[in-house]
Design a protein that fits this description.
This protein is an alpha/beta fold. The chain is built from seven helices and eight strands, in the order H-H-E-H-E-H-E-E-E-H-E-E-H-E-H. The longest helix is centred in the N-terminal third of the chain and has 12 residues, at 50-61.
């Protein structure tokens, strides 16, 4: 889309140095979650929130299995509808978890976000629920929420151009309502040892 930023506008120096893909790999790995206000219902404890289920499962099934894994950050990319108070409340709850409290949690604003949505000019141009044409599944023509489409745009494009994320050698992408129900291997170590570029977990159920 003409509304999305070019690599030059995201990080001019980085783009000139490496065509937008130069990365220093100073950090071994980060677990990324996109956060909107609907995942942060006020006054609910962490284990009652979608994102809470995800974080607690990471605590139990990933971080608790090996203290060496605490070096992997949790990176929360937040939409503009997530207030500073909401972020502080979630941070306080994370600190109450014995494993998550030892993990570096980083908050990064969704690139291009203003007003109440990422790229509100796209919503104005295409509508709140634009028609999304797909070749997989049914129906073929589906209306999707604007913020859901922006999530996809972030994961396939903007994520690789966002300067704070380009320090990570590997990024593990999570949905805020995903959970791990059994022990997870050290995916970052597995990827690094195999010198893999992309990998995925087979899910038991959706």
């Amino acid at each position: 889309s003409d509304f999305l930023p070019s690599p030059e506008s995201m990080d001019p120096a980085g783009y000139r140095a490496g065509m937008g893909v130069d990365r220093d790999f100073s950090l071994p790995g980060g677990i990324t979650l996109l956060v909107s206000a609907k995942f942060l219902v006020k006054k609910k404890p962490l284990n009652k929130l979608w994102i809470g289920w995800c974080l607690l499962s990471l605590s139990k099934q990933f971080y608790a299995k090996d203290p060496q894994r605490l070096k992997y950050d949790i990176v929360l990319i937040y939409y503009p509808d997530v207030t500073q108070d909401a972020r502080a409340e979630l941070n306080a709850t994370i600190r109450d978890d014995p494993m998550l409290s030892k993990v570096t949690v980083r908050w990064i604003p969704f690139p291009g976000a203003s007003d109440h949505l990422p790229y509100p000019e796209l919503e104005k141009h295409y509508g709140r629920k634009p028609v999304y044409y797909t070749t997989c599944g049914a129906p073929k023509h589906t209306h999707w929420e604007h913020d859901y489409l922006m999530m996809t745009v972030f994961r396939v494009y903007l994520m690789f151009l966002t300067p704070p994320l380009r320090a990570y050698k590997y990024l593990w992408i999570f949905d805020a309502d995903s959970i791990i129900e059994s022990p997870a291997c050290d995916v970052f170590e597995t990827m690094s040892k195999g010198q893999f570029v992309h990998g995925y977990y087979m899910q038991r159920l959706d």
